[in-house]
## 1
Amino acid sequence: MSRRTSGFARQADNNHAVIVAAFKQMGVSIVDLRLKGGGCPDLLAGFRGRDRLVEIKRPGKAPNATQEAFCAAWKGAAPVVVRTVEDCAQLVRLWLS
């Protein structure tokens, strides 16, 4: 039986560990938020004084309704969806520009 938080299973996507490792390899600080629930994105990522909430999704998958509602209500920068290591690199390049 899976552990549930706020009525939703908070199981990590199968690429979660790969994405976290890639960000860390690139020098990004990571706080894992996936157990927070309530549509909160999976990670808080920080690099060179900039922070972003990051939602990890498997390729071909989209945020669910609860995650979309969180994003709509969030007053900070819009969370970023990453699916691949290349998506991680693209976010780091954006931070460097």
Note: Strands lie at 4-5, 8-9, 29-32, 43-47, 50-56, 80-82.
## 2
Amino acid sequence: MIRVGVVVAALAVGVPASAQSAVDAKAVAEPITRQLEAFRRDDYDTAYAFASAGVRQAFDRHGFERMVKGGYPEIAHSISAFVSRTSGGPDGHVFVHVKIQGENGNSIEALYDMVQESDGWRINGVVTKPDPGMVFRPVPPNARTG
């Protein structure tokens, strides 16, 4: 079962009080969850649409796919993800912390840099690190349970 969740209450906690009124945490996180859903369908055309203008300038569509598959396997093939918090950054950027479980059994924390563009929030970049707090090991399909 694939799960993607946005914990809106947790989102508001990390945003400074002055930015909370100006930033809709759910709207900021939505492109991330929609992009992860697109990656699960192997729909890189849709996933690419959530990238910022700066990312689209750095990578054409096929280069973007190669970069994601080669550098971010847990993001390219996630089985679950949830937003743990957000925080305000410089120049109107918002940082969204997402805990992700990959098909490969690895769990990561991804820090997404979000920017507001004329057509909405876009993903401007992501950095990841292992998340030892999440333990997930897939059960082989032929394993017996119970």
Note: The chain has one domain: 3-130.
## 3
Amino acid sequence: MENPNLVDIDGYENYKFDTELQQVYNIKKNKYLKNKSSKSGTYVALYKNRERKNIRIYDLIKKPENPNLVDIVGYEGLYKFDIDLEQVFSIKRNRYKINTLRKNGYYHICLSKNKKNITLGIHQIVYLINNPLENLKGFDIDHIDGNPQNNKIENLRKCSHSDNCSNRKVDKSNTSGYKNITQIKYGYRFELMKNKIKYAKNFKTLEEAITYRDITVREKCGEFANLE
């Protein structure tokens, strides 16, 4: 009677894997092979064309496919992205890569292909997964709410670098506490750089500067205007 727990092993027709015992069965010799242990885990030695290869038992276990893992455009077969954990899974190493949090608050990850490394923002990967046909060359991905760690697709939009800068919050080095306004010797100065055009004007009072700032920024930046 055929054992229902025995399943094929890809590339090794003379062996089968017992999913219950978690052991390899040698069809020709009609016996189970002994598992061996090493620092990398439990393994078994299989032969094909007189060549020996150590196979990890973990790799033989059929694991249920994770529905949250999706392909990354341009890195199919190398990596997948977990849309729930917002992490990259290395197919070759069979493990998740660790995101790097930079000083600017953005999460990044390094991917390798053809011996070349490239660093991508998690927000860029999320956007590409949801918009695989879009060309992002020369464009930024903006966080609508200004939070660089909120990488939900609903919070991301494609934009120019100028628009992305418009949606940034006030810099910590700002002397007035108000975005686009700095305190000068005889009052306050409003400055805005938009599409390589500089808008600037001096005011005696902070209130005047804020009023002018609000009108100008909304006019020049539109939906990307951020006054905070």
Note: The chain has a mean pLDDT of 92.
## 4
Amino acid sequence: MRHDQDSDEQEAEARSYRVPMRVTAVRSYPECPQLFTYPICPRCGKTMDREYQSYCDRCGQALDWKGFSKAVIFSTARCKKPTHENK
């Protein structure tokens, strides 16, 4: 019966990805030449390329964007500026 229990757990895990989770955080790169901000998936913690997409493009988690305007901003370390050497 162990196989049935494992199967049930896998099905429950798969279904949990269908329940939208709120996006409550963004990662910001403020010291780069342009301001870049990326939403963070609440399940996998990876940054996403676009805001307001229905699912995380990394793990497939369904997303809920209600309250996104109040998301916590996580700032990254300094961005290295490109160096241009004339030779």
Note: The mean pLDDT is 83.
